[in-house]
């Protein structure tokens, strides 16, 4: 025992379990538990974190170096290297207390001094559910003799401060002082073959496919990346070897007499020979399944084979896998899930309350009037996923759904089409949507669409629809504002969300379908230029999102009427409070209040119930106004009048409307030509009117849903405030980490504990936010991917889907958070996604590039109405493009060229 610690300095593997993890770290804790469970883990012992801390306790030089390390920020590689080198030199050169030295050597003698050992590091922050420190610290192989052992223990301690370990901890937000290091001393297996086993496929995510890498000699050759190993994929359900790819294994690392290792060049036959036979693969698969069952999650396992015996060297969780959909299906059939977040063009993770309201709102798989969660709606990694398998098993429904997905996201469409061809999702392979029931829903909608397309008056229809939506939203708000107990109102909120979409389905889709179909039929009837058909979809009246954006432009004009207000906004960082004391501030804030009265329920990432609305945080609107003013202020007299500032947004919209009228005139003139001209003209005129009058309804359903979410948000925050007052929650917004069922139960049962549940879910949300959600995945976690065809895109271009025609060249502005980042007029907006809460940025944008979306997702619709070129569904755009780069957006070709500017990140 140490003088400064009551914890042991040394622990044999036989004494290590989960309780000892704080002393030995995750890696060593796992080894101890697995050896105790009877798995073939070579014997050894651990020099605990207590030894590490006591060896360095009271060392002022060490403390001073840690103080310097605490000041290193992410990306400061040079500083990290300097401080890290000083720490490594200090720690490795520091003496060890005699009592500690004796304790280590005593344990060494018990396991056998005459053997060769692997000396490995196990940090206390290693192998957390959300972070893997694999390869961050050092490993020493074929260590022989007491003095070599003690030297390598100190070297392992020092490796806690390698450059990569320091920077990784900074990125993960793990304080350096919170991490200590245990050293694993383990009998070395003199392996003839060794490698790595992933119990779930690390690339596809498939939980039933094990991936095995193997090479000759010690596994260090694979871990260090100096050989291309054999790769085997095994289906754990039946042991079938799905894939074998023999790598070019040029070298092997093997032990040498007296200690240490050497790299040996292999013969040509060994380089190409298959490392593992069927029996060994079967043994590895069985070992992997057993380890995973014991550890409770997919594992990354290091293994070795010596003299025909399989050994387990290490096991850690695979931290890179995207979580499985929950609730998990229990019917034994194949399932395919589509990301609803991608469909809604908002891919951030959401807390449980936000997930739950959408599980209630989605109508799939239940009958109208049922107040329950959709059985087709699941969640994974903080995102909502919709089970498409029932639809795919019906030929008629599958074709309809797959076709419709193309308007939302072509990569989703391609992935669903590929997966839908698999046997487990083919017609007859499991439960499916009834074609009769499907047609029973679709035929009335299609019939109503035909009525709107050819017979019903369309002039004023959007205005009438808007009034109906406003009335519905107000009725929902009032339903949650009665005098009933909070628990009863939460129950009402659940019913409100579950029933909200059904009246929308009957009312809005027929109008939108009629508008879209009219535009397509026009292309069949009239041989006009494409730009005329495109012009017809611009400058529309009644689109609720476009009207909001025009209202933001009006705010900028109001600011221009008060120079002091405009100046304060241009400075940046203006708030409602700072504007009150500025001359003209009250007048401007009056306009802002009017804007918030109408649009306050909206906001960035608004499908997430927990996100602030404009009413809560108007700073993002003020930032957009500032960007508009700032750029207009910098424009020269040579700029065209329309872009010179005041009224520019209204003038631009009016110009697009005039161009649409002229395009309509040209199309009508073309229709008059030929033998059937007199017959076609009335029909073409009708279709033009239908198209322009009804397409704008595309954004209306979301308006009602968002206003309903706003009312529910207000209710649950009130409940959260009450739970805070009762001492049951720390903050009112903790309520978003419960679902509506849990909130109702918490209000009815004041003894129910909440704080621990909230804390663990808040931590999980932070972890999920770092994950990139797949567009499409199976029930086994397999990520089904697709790529865009390169087409006519030049080499090196970023390929996506064309969304709004035209070509624009300009400076890119990568925006990840519209609440804090400003887009200046004439810049090209590059974003992970956009929803109506983002589109005020479009007031200033010259073009749009998005990582998700399709022709009919909202950013694309608004871009077309604004007449700005757009390319969407461009994977990785916000990483490949940097702010300030000059880029060219090809809205017709569906690709983006990076022309010049700061180098793109990897």
Automatic annotation (TrEMBL):
UniProt keyword list: ATP-binding, Nucleotide-binding, Pyruvate, Transferase
| Domain PEP-utilising enzyme mobile intervals | 824-894
Q: Which Pfam families match?
A: PEP-utilizers, PPDK_N
Enzyme nomenclature, EC number: 2.7.9.2
Q: Does the keyword Transferase apply?
A: yes
- Highest rank taxon of the organism: Bacteria
Q: Name one GO molecular function term.
A: ATP binding
Pyruvate phosphate dikinase AMP/ATP-binding domain: residues covered: 22-320
The protein's matches in PANTHER family, at most eight in alphabetical order, are given as: PHOSPHOENOLPYRUVATE SYNTHASE-RELATED, PPDK_N DOMAIN-CONTAINING PROTEIN
Q: What is this protein called?
A: Phosphoenolpyruvate synthase
| Lineage summary | Bacteria, Pseudomonadati, Myxococcota, Polyangia, Polyangiales
Q: Which gene encodes it?
A: ppsA
């Amino acid at each position: 025992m140490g003088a400064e610690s009551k914890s042991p300095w040394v622990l044999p593997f036989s004494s290590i379990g989960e309780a000892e993890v704080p002393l030995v770290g995750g890696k060593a804790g796992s080894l101890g538990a697995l050896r105790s469970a009877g798995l073939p883990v070579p014997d050894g012992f651990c020099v605990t974190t207590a030894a590490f801390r006591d060896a360095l306790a009271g060392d002022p030089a060490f403390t001073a170096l840690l103080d310097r390390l605490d000041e290193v920020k992410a990306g400061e590689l040079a500083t990290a290297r300097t401080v890290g080198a000083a720490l490594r030199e200090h720690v490795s050169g520091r003496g060890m207390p005699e009592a500690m030295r004796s304790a280590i050597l005593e344990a060494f003698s018990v396991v056998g001094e005459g053997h060769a050992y692997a000396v490995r590091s196990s940090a206390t922050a290693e192998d957390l559910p959300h972070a893997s420190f694999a390869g961050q610290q050092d490993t020493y192989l074929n260590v022989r003799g007491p003095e070599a052992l003690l030297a390598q223990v100190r070297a392992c301690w020092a490796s806690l401060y390698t450059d990569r370990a320091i920077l990784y901890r900074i990125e993960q937000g793990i304080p350096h002082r919170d991490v200590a290091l245990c050293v694993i001393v383990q009998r070395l297996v003199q392996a003839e073959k060794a490698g790595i086993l992933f119990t779930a496929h690390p690339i596809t995510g498939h939980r039933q496919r094990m991936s095995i890498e193997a090479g000759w000699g010690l596994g260090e050759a694979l871990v260090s990346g100096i050989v291309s190993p054999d790769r085997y994929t095994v289906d754990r359900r039946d042991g079938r070897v799905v894939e074998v790819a023999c790598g070019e294994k040029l070298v092997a690392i093997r032990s040498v007499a007296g200690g240490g290792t050497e790299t040996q060049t292999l013969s040509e036959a060994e380089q190409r020979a298959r490392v593992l036979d069927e029996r060994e693969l079967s043994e590895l698969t069985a070992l992997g399944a057993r380890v995973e069952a014991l550890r409770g999650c997919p594992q990354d396992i290091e293994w070795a084979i010596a003299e025909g015996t399989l050994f387990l060297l290490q096991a850690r969780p695979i931290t890179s896998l995207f979580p499985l959909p929950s609730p998990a299906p229990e019917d034994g059939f194949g399932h395919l899930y589509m990301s609803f977040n991608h469909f809604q063009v908002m891919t951030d993770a959401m807390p449980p309350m936000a997930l739950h309201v959408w599980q209630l709102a989605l109508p799939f798989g239940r009958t109208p009037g049922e107040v329950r969660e959709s059985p087709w709606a699941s969640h994974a990694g903080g995102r909502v996923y919709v089970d498409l398998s029932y639809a795919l098993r019906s030929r008629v429904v599958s074709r309809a759904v797959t076709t419709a997905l193309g308007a939302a996201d072509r990569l989703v469409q391609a992935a669903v089409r590929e997966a839908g061809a698999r046997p487990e999702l083919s017609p007859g392979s499991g439960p499916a949507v009834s074609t009769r029931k499907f047609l029973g829903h679709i035929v009335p909608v299609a019939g109503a669409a035909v009525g709107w397309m050819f017979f019903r008056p369309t002039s004023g229809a959007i205005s009438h629809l808007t009034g109906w939506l406003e009335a519905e939203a107000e009725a929902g708000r009032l339903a949650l504002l009665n005098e009933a107990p909070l628990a009863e109102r939460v129950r009402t909120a659940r019913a409100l969300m579950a029933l909200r979409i059904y009246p929308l389905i009957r009312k809005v889709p027929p109008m939108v379908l009629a508008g879209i179909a009219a535009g397509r039929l026009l292309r069949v009837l009239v041989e006009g230029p494409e730009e005329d058909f495109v012009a017809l979809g611009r400058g529309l009246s009644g689109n609720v999102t476009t009207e909001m954006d025009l209202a933001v432009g009006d705010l900028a004009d109001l600011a221009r009427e008060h120079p002091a207000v405009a100046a304060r906004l241009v400075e940046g960082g203006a708030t409602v409070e700072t504007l009150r004391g500025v001359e003209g501030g009250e007048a401007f804030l009056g306009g802002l209040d009017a804007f918030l009265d109408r649009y306050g329920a909206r906001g960035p990432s608004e499908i997430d119930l927990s996100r602030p609305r404009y009413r809560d945080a108007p700073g993002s609107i003020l930032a957009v106004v500032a960007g508009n003013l700032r750029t207009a202020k910098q424009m020269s007299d040579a700029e065209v009048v329309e872009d010179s500032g005041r009224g520019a947004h209204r003038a631009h919209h009016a110009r697009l409307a005039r161009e649409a009228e002229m395009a309509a005139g040209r199309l009508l003139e073309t229709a008059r030509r030929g033998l059937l001209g007199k017959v076609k003209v009335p029909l073409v005129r009708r279709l033009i009117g239908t198209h322009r009058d009804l397409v704008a309804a595309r954004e209306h359903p979301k308006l009602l849903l968002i206003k309903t979410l706003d009312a529910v948000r207000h209710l649950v925050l009130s409940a959260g405030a009450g739970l805070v007052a009762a001492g049951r929650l720390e903050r009112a917004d903790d309520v978003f980490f419960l679902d509506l069922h849990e909130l109702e139960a918490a209000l009815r049962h004041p003894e129910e504990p909440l704080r621990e549940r909230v804390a663990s879910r808040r931590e999980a949300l932070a972890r999920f936010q770092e994950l990139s959600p797949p567009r499409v995945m199976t029930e086994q976690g397999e990520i089904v991917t697709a790529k865009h065809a390169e087409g006519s895109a030049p080499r090196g271009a970023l390929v996506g889907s064309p969304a709004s025609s035209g070509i624009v060249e300009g400076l890119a502005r990568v925006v990840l958070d519209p609440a804090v980042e400003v887009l200046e007029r004439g810049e090209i907006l590059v974003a992970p996604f956009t929803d109506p809460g983002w589109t005020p940025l479009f007031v200033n944008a010259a073009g749009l590039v998005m990582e998700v979306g399709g022709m009919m997702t909202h950013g694309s619709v608004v871009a077309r109405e604004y007449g700005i070129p757009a390319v969407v569904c461009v994977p990785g755009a916000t990483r490949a493009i940097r702010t300030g780069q000059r880029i060219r957006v090809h809205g017709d070709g569906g690709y983006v060229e990076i022309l010049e500017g700061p180098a793109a990140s990897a």
